Amino acid sequence: MTRTHEQRLGLSFEVLEGLSVGDALGEALSYNHYRVRDLDDFSAFKPGTVRYTDDTAMALVIWRALAMHGSIDSDQLANSFAMEYLVSPDRGYGRMARRILEEIGAGGNWEQLSPSAFGSGSFGNGAAMRVGPLGAYFASDIESIPEQAAASARVTHFHPEGIAGAIAVALAVATAVESRGMDPTTCIERIWDSVLALTPESEVRKRLTECRGELDHFSVARMVGNGAEISAQDTVPFCIWNACRCIDDYREAFFSTVEVGGDCDTNAAIVGSIVTAFSGVSGIPEDWHRVRESLPISPPTKSDKPC
Ligand SMILES: [Mg+2]
């Protein structure tokens, strides 16, 4: 399907909403993750008071980059990530991310800083957590996703596993968008097929292959990881598997994601991205949406033109 820039941005914004609600509530409830289903009443939170974290902050930067340019320019994105960090550094950024972004903000070059992180580049889950809006924007051009997702990832996550994680999540989001209106079972098969077809050979892809046919979310988390290591390898396979299991049910997707523990905000951000890509923003429970801190951007208008 051919879409205008505004239509692509609109889909991207929907996914950003699903990402950020998962991120904010996942973080807020992470300390009680084992009993998250008992905490379904969010009336204790005042509207707009549940803060989003670095997952949303960086996804916002990607959305703005696409709104402005219609594609990812790694140099521009690196500088924008650094500026966002300098404006609001208290969003839970990891230690290496803080170091890289501070050095870029001080005039450093991401092409030197990112590959040297941890000796061979970071394979953290930070590139996967923020990429959902990019997957939605390029949903109708899925062949471009590996290149665009890699361009968004490598400024901070240069290791092939960090990049593979971002590509896999972006592919899942794109395929979910393109499967809207289909029955959930068809959507799920399409997501698995496209993710395994276009994700580069990697530990991320290997673990996805291993868990595809599993049935229980606790078992899958034990098998492939729950994000406790903060790596792409131990985060992305479970998130894609669980998003597929709950592709038309944001509430169940969130509960089952958070209750396995691990990196709760990032896991819920990734799962929220994929589920909202299929179910739309109307699938996010209204009371959950209401308590999240408001986003500093608005849905797209015709004035949002790519350069
Ligand atoms: Mg976070």
Q: Which short descriptors sum up this protein?
A:
ADP-ribosylglycohydrolase fold, globular, binds magnesium ion, 307 residues, 60% helix, mainly alpha
Structure overview:
This protein has 307 residues and is mainly alpha-helical. It has a single domain (5-291), classed as ADP-ribosylation/Crystallin J1 (ADP-ribosylglycohydrolase fold), CATH 1.10.4080.10. Helix content is 60%, strand content 0%. The protein has 16 helices and no strands. The chain has helices spanning 5-28, 54-69, 74-87, 95-105, 110-116, 126-129, 132-137, 145-153, 160-178, 184-198, 203-211, 217-224, 236-245, 250-258, 264-279, 286-291. Helix 1 (5-28) runs antiparallel to helix 2 (54-69) and helix 11 (203-211) packs parallel to helix 13. The protein is globular, with a radius of gyration of 17 Å. The protein starts with a helix and ends in a 16-residue tail after the last helix. The mean pLDDT is 94. It binds magnesium ion (MG). Residues 53-55, 92, 265-266 line the site of magnesium ion.
